[in-house]
Structures are given as structure tokens and as C-alpha cells.
Amino acid sequence: MKVITSRAFNQDVSQAKRAARVAPVFVTDRGKATHVLMSVEAYRKLIGQTETIVDLLAMPGLEPMDLAAARSGAWDGRSGD
Prior knowledge:
Elements: E1 2-5, H1 6-11, H2 13-22, E2 25-29, E3 32-37, H3 40-47, H4 53-58, H5 67-72
Parallel strand pairs: 1-2
Antiparallel strand pairs: 2-3
């Protein structure tokens, strides 16, 4: 864990971001911790999120669609009703 002042953070954000890859960085204002900078991976672990947006967009369990048939007009998008 690293602690930096808000002034030091403002002067070198890149350094704070590099430090946050290793461990959370506490930013202080007048000696009091006001913010925490951490990597996205650390945040996801903290909140217990195990799926990424890519995992969520994959939509497991859906049947694949025959795009060639859809383009050829074999499927017009209407149900058989």
C-alpha cells in the first residue's frame, strides 16, 4: 500500500497509476485519506466479479444462428404463426 498527497497525485498521475498496478494507492488531502486508486483487476477481485464484459457478451447457451440462410431469404424473421 502506498500513500501520496493529492498534490503529488496531481503532479504525476502516471506514477500513481503505475504504483496502483502493484497495490492500492491512498490519496490524502490535508493528511486524511480521501481516495483510493487501484487496478481494475484488484477492484473486480474486491467486489467478487469473476466475469468480464467479454464473458457476459458471449451469451453461453444460445444456439448459433445460420447467417447464410438469413441472408438468402430462407428466414424472413417472422414466426411460423
